[in-house]
DNA sequence: TGCTAAACGGAACATTGTTCCGTATAAAAC
DNA sequence: GTTTTATACGGAACAATGTTCCGTTTAGCA
């Protein structure tokens, strides 16, 4: 019973990598059509692998979801800097809120899952806050500094507000969420 | 095979009535502690009846939920008239929004279920809209007429906005939802 | 007291997340 | 090229939960 030498790790097996890619791609596709509540079996089948394999790569449902959305979360957070560079402070903030609402809205079931308190989603939620919070804080601070927005707004309140609105699933009438977010943005304005 | 004479319906059986009451009471208690996602078996057990009995009275989970909350929905809608009588138009609207947000927030899982698109919740949602919409419309119209609120706000947008916020489940910090709702109310104000 | 429609209870079924373990295999060692 | 072995695979099996079905019980009526 000898101890495994620490260095010189065995390379990742090719089939494992292939299956992982297939799973991520399948999950992405399934989540778009069926929402994140889709059965894991559906993802495994679409990827052409067994359920056991899926669970080997993603010990929990939430891990799969996290893996799929991590990249998109990053993209959304990164958009903040671009908007800040191209627009006046208040408009940048308002536009990013819209962008973020759309992101959440198109991830059917993501936000409710995230906010469900389920400990399984802790990782994803942590990543979310780690990336999204700085983004909105930067925009908000800039808008406040410019005198366009009242100074007593909590960045977390904003994240949560827009997340909630985006995830409400009310897509019955086009533009509804956008209108509400705009209303909210108006509420942020500094009153003379 | 004779047709049952239409008149003179057999009275509701006493045990049936008793069980129905027990179920409603048990469900109410369980929903408070475990949210509306609680297993139906838990409700049946607490009521001291079999699952079959529960399903006889409430063919679907959603029917049970609907029955439990119908009364509370009514109470919340009725509060609108009281607030309108006791406060200026804008304050009445803002207060009712807060009242409504609290109502939704204390019904863990209600709003997500309502907005899930699940057809099982159609009845409850219909009742919801039938009672709540007139309430908010009345308050909104009054505030607009008084010149306190911009005239381009859709009542449905408001219902949905507050529902979404209240149901987000973010109870991590006290007053968060209240602050956000207040922010939203500010966005409604008429700009000179 | 006896009859019958209504109600009851819970076993059984379907779906879905998750675990387990015997089998297969890619990469390394020789 | 063969052997070895850690790794990965697949899917049967388990647990939780919504829902259905049907044999049994019973309240209300005659």
Automatic annotation (TrEMBL), chains A, B:
Residues 39-58 bind DNA. It holds the Pfam family TetR_N. The keyword Glycoprotein does not apply. Residues 17-76 form the HTH tetR-type domain. PROSITE patterns: HTH_TETR_2. PANTHER family: HTH-TYPE TRANSCRIPTIONAL REGULATOR BETI (PTHR30055:SF234), HTH-TYPE TRANSCRIPTIONAL REGULATOR RUTR (PTHR30055). Keywords: DNA-binding, Transcription, Transcription regulation. This is TetR/AcrR family transcriptional regulator. InterPro entries: Homeodomain-like_sf, HTH-type_TetR-like_transc_reg, HTH_TetR, Tet_transcr_reg_TetR-rel_C_sf, TetR_SbtR-like_C. One of its GO terms (molecular function) is DNA-binding transcription factor activity. Gene3D superfamilies: Tetracycline Repressor, domain 2.
């Amino acid at each position: 019973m000898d101890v495994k030498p620490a260095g010189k790790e065995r390379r990742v097996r090719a089939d494992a990598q292939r299956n992982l890619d297939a799973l991520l791609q399948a999950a992405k596709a399934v989540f778009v059509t069926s929402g994140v509540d889709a059965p894991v079996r559906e993802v495994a089948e679409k990827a052409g692998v067994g359920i056991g394999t899926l669970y080997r790569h993603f010990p929990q449902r939430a891990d799969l979801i996290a893996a799929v959305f991590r990249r998109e979360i990053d993209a959304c957070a990164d958009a903040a800097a671009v908007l800040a560079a191209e627009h006046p402070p208040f408009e940048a903030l308002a536009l990013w809120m819209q962008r973020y609402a759309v992101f959440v809205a198109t991830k059917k079931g993501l936000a409710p899952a995230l906010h469900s308190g389920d400990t399984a989603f802790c990782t994803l939620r942590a990543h979310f806050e780690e990336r999204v919070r700085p983004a909105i804080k930067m925009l908000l601070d800039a808008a406040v500094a410019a005198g366009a927005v009242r100074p007593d707004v909590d960045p977390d309140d904003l994240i949560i507000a827009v997340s909630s609105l985006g995830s409400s699933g009310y897509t019955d009438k086009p533009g509804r969420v956008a209108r509400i977010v705009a209303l909210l943005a108006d509420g942020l304005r500094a009153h003379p």
